[in-house]
Structure formats: C-alpha cells, structure tokens
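Model: Ready when you are.
Researcher: Fold this.
Model:
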Amino acid sequence: GPESAEVKGKPEVKLEQPVEFTCSALSLPPAKITWRINGTVIPGQTENVLILDKASYKDSGKYTCEASNAVTGRVATSSSYILSVKEEIDEGLSDGAIAGIVIACLVAVGASIALFFYCRAKVPVSSPY
C-alpha cells in the first residue's frame, strides 16, 4: 500500500462550527498522512483525522490527503474534497414590516400629489389682455 486515499466529511458547515475530515487508505504498515488545503501542506497534521475546532472563511477550499508508506515508497493522493464555510443569513423583514413600508410609501406619494395640486391652484394666472 497505500491504496487509493479517500477523504470523508461534511461539504458545507456554518461559520465557527467544528469540522472533521477523515482520510482512509489501505496500507501495511499504516500510511503516514499529509493534509493539504488548496495544495498547501497543513503543518502538524499527520493523523488520519483532521479536526478544525471553529471553521472560518479561510478554511473554505479544496482539501486533499496524501498517504505515504516509507517501506514500499508508494504515495496515494485522495481526490479533492471541497469545503464551504457559510454564514447563516437572517430571513429579512417580516410581512408586517414590508406592509408598513409599502403603506408609508403610498401615503407619501399621495401627500406629494395633493401638495402639487394645492400649490398649483394657489398660483394666480394673469390675463394676457
């Protein structure tokens, strides 16, 4: 070994949630694991489980694990595993708030039209004769 390496985990997590990836590769003796994000080695991560305590936006990206066996000299790299870290978005305004804004806009437009006709009626028109 190692035979084909495989990464398993969640493809999407919320901001500041824990993340866990597992790398599996058949190997005798057990393979040494190297983790990469976007092609860059993650230092200090040599276990088959990669744990991120609190996911941040910088943790989004393409993860791969590389399994190597010093005895056989073989290296197996996993297919890419993409992680997205997302923030939960608030639903927005309630139906009542939207209705209130629409009514306020209609009242403002009506008041503007009424003021226009009121001011127009007050302007004296001089006779050309």
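Researcher: Now this one.
Model:
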Amino acid sequence: EPRRKAAFGSVGRRIPYRILHLIDQDGESLGNMHRAEALKLMDQRDLKLVLLHENTDPPVYRLMTGQQLHEEQLKRAEKKKASPKPGVVQKELSFSSAIAKNDLETKIKQIAQWIEKKYHVKVTIRQAK
C-alpha cells in the first residue's frame, strides 16, 4: 500500500510506486518505467521528480526544473486561495427603502464583490416610515 501523498513538490527520492509514467520537463511523455530508471534520469538531467496524478495506473510523475516547480506551487496556492471554503457562506445586507442614491450604489458594489467570491447574498429592504 503506497504511503499518502505529501505536499506538492516534496517527492524527492521517496517514490512508493515501482512502475510510474514519466513526463519530461517539456511536457513530452517518456512512457512507463521503473522508479530506479526515473531516479537515474532525474540525477542525469539535474531535475526534480514531482507527482502529478496519483490515482492513475501507473501514477504520473513529471521531471521539473526548480523554476517550474516554484511556478506550479504558486499556481496551486493561488487556486486554493481563490476557491471558496467548504460550506456555503451567506452574507446579509439590509437597508431602508428611503436609502440615498450614493448609499445604494455603495451597497450594490459590496453585493457584487460578495457574489464574485461565490457567497450567497440575502438582501432585506425595510419600508421607510
């Protein structure tokens, strides 16, 4: 049973799979090979070996330069940051029906920002006296 996948980029030399599918740094497939061959290739080209897809048979690894690895880590961090948290966040906004035009425009901008962040927005309008 292979060990659980560590954080992206921390593969190093610990590869729990005997046979893996290898992709080179330019994105070309090198085919299936034994982990020893993949490690030898990694050392020869002075690259890092990174797990891309664990759930395939055989798992897919890619040879990457330090720069490519850093860029991929930044992309994944940005994607994770942009994705909403588990569970639905609901925002509620209430205002009077006699609201001034400028105040209404400000609240509309706030609602638009919340919708962009994939929040559920509930608007309540109170009747003016």
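Researcher: Key takeaway?
Model: The first strand starts at residue 19 and ends at 23.
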